[in-house]
Amino acid sequence: MASITDVAALAGVSAATVSRALSGNGHVSAATRGKVVEAAETLGYVASSSASSLASGRTRNVGVVVPFVDRWYFSAVIEGAQRALMERGYDLTLYTLREDGAARASVFEQFLLRKRVDAVIAVSLELTEAEVQRLHALHKPLVGIGGPLTGVRTLTIDNPAVARLCTEHLLALGHTRIAFAGGSLDEDGAFDLNLSRRQGFAQAMHGAGIDVPDEDYRSAEYSIDTGYVAAKQLLGRPHGRPTAIVAGSDEVAIGCILAAKDLGMSVPRDVSITGIDDHELAAFFDLTTVAQFPQRQGALAVELLMDDLHPDAADADAAPRSTALPFELVVRGSTARPAP
Amino acid sequence: MASITDVAALAGVSAATVSRALSGNGHVSAATRGKVVEAAETLGYVASSSASSLASGRTRNVGVVVPFVDRWYFSAVIEGAQRALMERGYDLTLYTLREDGAARASVFEQFLLRKRVDAVIAVSLELTEAEVQRLHALHKPLVGIGGPLTGVRTLTIDNPAVARLCTEHLLALGHTRIAFAGGSLDEDGAFDLNLSRRQGFAQAMHGAGIDVPDEDYRSAEYSIDTGYVAAKQLLGRPHGRPTAIVAGSDEVAIGCILAAKDLGMSVPRDVSITGIDDHELAAFFDLTTVAQFPQRQGALAVELLMDDLHPDAADADAAPRSTALPFELVVRGSTARPAP
DNA sequence: GTGAAAGCGCTAACAA
DNA sequence: TTGTTAGCGCTTTCAC
């Protein structure tokens, strides 16, 4: 494994010059740079990240903290972040935070403190006050995605607006009896994602002058199963069956579609259904949904962090602090006018 | 950020003793260790990983290279590996390898060479000969999972046996006209996973003395869509319709189930279907499948690497080099005796 | 634009 | 068992 002094010797310059030539920090004449690059290539030189980190205090590594990796939304965010980081020569170190316990604590007490990362991306995390403190105590650039991190700059779509959009799509088609499936309220207001989508639905219905009876709100927890159960309840009624369902996520919506099919109903003829996310399965189920773009969210988080890490006059004001994340209604075959 | 000398000063010992006391390398009296630990705690000391790596040559970090993160199997392996690594105080750095190109090359030419990882786990990767060379050139412990890495110690289930198991389950139920959906052959023998599952099916059918016509093999590529298409073809036939389908993966099997439903057929009354994986959606679709346990595979890979990294006399022979990975038939509701 | 030299914070001989 | 002493391989002042 060639070291910087080997390269320096071969190129006939000092180690300092090699460092400057390869890192781009400091001025090196084009001629010297050429020699250095060539020497580095012939030797197959790659700088040791630990030596470089120790000397410079920068690791070129970003920590990504997620609650799960085996769920589509999270893995998509990770994928987007990883791609964006790799382009910039950064590594991605992954931390998963489960239920409480020693393992969870150690992420905050040990892992993130090792000076292994320059910045942290926290995805949809429900953190305690103490944990947020810990993150801030790192004094490292930090950005949240999709979650309710108080005091942390967070990228998130406008959830009420998204749910309103779904609802208004159905209203515009002529539906008036619309139910909502998603977001239980039992927890202590925990994840405001649930609540905010529900509120968006309520706003839209209110705006249309329609009263929604309590029985038309069914809770469902971001899974096909709970969506299935919710829809069975909604659609199995002898009277007052809704003609459309706004689901809080695509998983829930898919559960609703399957429940409708199992009841012998046809989507969208007997019931229209909308989702949120544009999950990888949404197209397959021909689901009308509002796409958010988790890969892009991951990439955007990386861009924000890079602005912090490399504050150039150029992009100083190029990337405003809180961008409203894009979302988009994707109309597929699960919604139509109600049967006359 | 307290450093080791701060701890040493507070505990009234030398930096070397702090290092020994905290790392467990070398002998330290219980009394001294107590003082050191206490001092470290009051100062909130956590060793700098870069300094430690530079001095010791060990990073306490493992690289995991995957083709995708946003597919269930891969994300489950990652999750399992991450959990196992964290327990041992190791970090996980994630690399995704996409289509060819500069990004892909740079993983091998730059990222993995930075001395940032002590070992590498390669998941279901189809690597070129040159890329495998690169991995070996790292001279770091390396273990593959599920993929065909020539010359690399690889953890994989016995794919032919798994497919045989599915097939024999159906044969035992009384099916005789069984089709196979999965694993296209078009590529240059590329991923032997495809081929080997197909072969297992063929072996079982052959063993039962049943000839399978070519038309009963349909290719499908580990996705719901292609499974759906394959099943439509198989089940839509006016004559010689199979009474059961062995799918090469759960995604394909789910596609088959949906296709059957859309044709108005009932599963398992009109057609029995088996999958492979025990995907997170399998239970929901009530799919009979052969479970492999990707989380455990990730964890097992970590154990193997740890044996290499920390060769203790104790486990020297405790973990045999090539364990046959466990798999298990999970019989759910998608299979039954054929209609009489 | 380039080199010399100091030092980042830790670990591992080697002594004591 | 503990302290002393060199580095590990880079980056970054500070001169020139």
What's this entry about, in short?
Chains A, B: This is LacI family transcriptional regulator. The structure is a homodimer of 340-residue chains. Chain A contains twelve helices and eleven strands.
Could you list some keywords that capture this structure?
alpha/beta; 340 residues; HTH_LacI (chains A, B); homodimer; Rossmann fold; 434 Repressor (Amino-terminal Domain); 5-stranded parallel sheet; 6-stranded mixed sheet; 11 strands; transcription cis-regulatory region binding (chains A, B); DNA-binding
How would you characterize this protein structure?
- The structure is a homodimer of 340-residue chains.
- With 340 residues, chain A is an alpha/beta fold.
- The first copy, chain A, has 3 domains: 4-55, lambda repressor-like DNA-binding domains (434 Repressor (Amino-terminal Domain), Orthogonal Bundle); 59-157 and 294-309, Rossmann fold, CATH 3.40.50; 159-291, Response regulator (Rossmann fold), CATH 3.40.50.2300.
- Chain A is 42% helix and 14% strand.
- Chain A is built from 12 helices and 11 strands.
- In chain A, the strands form 2 sheets. Chain A has a 6-stranded mixed sheet with strand order 7-6-8-9-10-11, with helices on both faces. A 5-stranded parallel sheet of chain A has the order 2-1-3-4-5, with helices on one face.
- In chain A, helix 11 (250-262) links the parallel strand 8 and strand 9 (272-277).
- In chain A, helix 1 packs across helix 3 and helix 10 packs across helix 11.
- Chains A and B meet through helix 4, helix 5, strand 2, helix 6 and helix 10 of A and helix 4, helix 5, strand 2, helix 6 and helix 10 of B.
- The structure holds a DNA duplex (16 and 16 nucleotides).
